[in-house]
Amino acid sequence: MPFVSIRITREGNTAEQKAQVIREVTETLERVLHKPPEWTHIVIEEVDTDNWGFGGHTTTAVRQGLVPMPGSQPKNSG
Q: What are the catalytic residues?
């Protein structure tokens, strides 16, 4: 019985989009691994951007431009 856990940030994801992700992941497991859809379980967890961090900063801070995007090059000031 396949179990797939997907974590995404909580922001503007519609019920229709999440249903499409569930449908397409299920179809992929059926096509590639020959797993029956009725045995496939998909869980989508939505995490607040204050609780998701990378590069030493919260996603909220990065998206608000409060800190530079991790991995980005500093702008040349001269």
A: 2
